[in-house]
């Protein structure tokens, strides 16, 4: 049992909330030096030659031992060496692929520690931003290399991964764990209604911003004037204007959810029930006292240093990964769309996947929805428009005209999610539905060749059919 509100040594994932290493310990100093995430002997010493090396070791230890997935960190030096020596490109891709997974987890943990120091509003924004840091870094590097198909596929793939795979796993495992109430009757998990309503509206706006450039391209392609240069310039102008509008819309969304109407997004578990005057005497018996939340493992400066170093490593590994894509496509017969749509989002969202599922099992669906859908909204309304504007600045013709099949898959996924979350409730069957939809899309992109998906002249009828099917009856 914790004493004085502090975590036991046997619960390394829990802390005392102050991060100063003052914990109640039954273990020796040797154990604390190597395995205690919350305390390292010597950090409180007055001797600089003892204090600073101890603090440096504490940062390394707390970073490496924080998550089991960090065992894959051994791939990082191998990935860097493989990229610098120019060995087999497929090997470079595979090694750096697995190297980015633990780096994404370290990035997420460091961001959480910094967020705890900044407060709920700024911390939530920072957490969401750096949660998509891997996809952003990979996309910027791919944009620099003019790998537009990889950039667009990774954006769509990240959204689909969060909406279908992550949310589906949250609904499934959370629904299985919290399947019955106290009486044994079947029950559903709930989340705030405003989350569902805002989500539906913003996702439809994101879908429309993708459909309009693609539809205009198809219309101009089927018209009498089929000048490809004129069509490309028109789509480019439309994409840049749409990107600016989406960035402004995202700023309004942040102001709405984090400042002016943040009270509407308070989780139901934290909302105070209304009481009558006669209930005051029974208040302590009716409302259990919640335990204090865990504090950050590292301080703000230490977390910032870890954040900077990890971001640099992710950028280097991502650079090698992107450079090896062409060889992987040619030799392994895997389409660029599948790499961008499925593989890269899985790498970038690995830490978020675990976090969302864990909190869903704990019946905190509001936080799970914030991780899954909040990240999707940021990708659709901030990261993608930002890449279009960045390409504009860099002189690259990055547009928001996505391939026909990707657009249809995104629209159908958004519709399935909207019909699933609009009631503010979830169960494990809905989780199975979302995961099944994701697997179907993944298999389709794995089976389809890149040249077939990249052909603009093909698929006009399929695009029209997808638009028609997206309109509710």
UniProtKB/TrEMBL annotation:
Keywords: Antiport, Calcium, Calcium transport, Ion transport, Membrane, Transmembrane, Transmembrane helix, Transport, Vacuole. Residues 281-290 have a biased composition (Acidic residues). It is found in: Endomembrane system; Vacuole membrane. Residues 268-290 are annotated as: Disordered. The keyword Cytoplasm does not apply. InterPro entries: Acrflvin-R, CaH_exchang, CAX-like, NaCa_Exmemb, NCX_ion-bd_dom_sf. It is a multi-pass membrane protein. The chain crosses the membrane at residues 71-104, 155-174, 194-216, 237-256, 298-318, 338-361, 367-393, 405-422, 428-448. Residues 90-258, 305-446 form the Sodium/calcium exchanger membrane region domain. Has a role in promoting intracellular calcium ion sequestration via the exchange of calcium ions for hydrogen ions across the vacuolar membrane. Involved also in manganese ion homeostasis via its uptake into the vacuole. Belongs to the Ca(2+):cation antiporter (CaCA) (TC 2.A.19) family. This is Vacuolar calcium ion transporter. It comes from Apiospora saccharicola. The lineage of its organism: Eukaryota, Fungi, Dikarya, Ascomycota, Pezizomycotina.
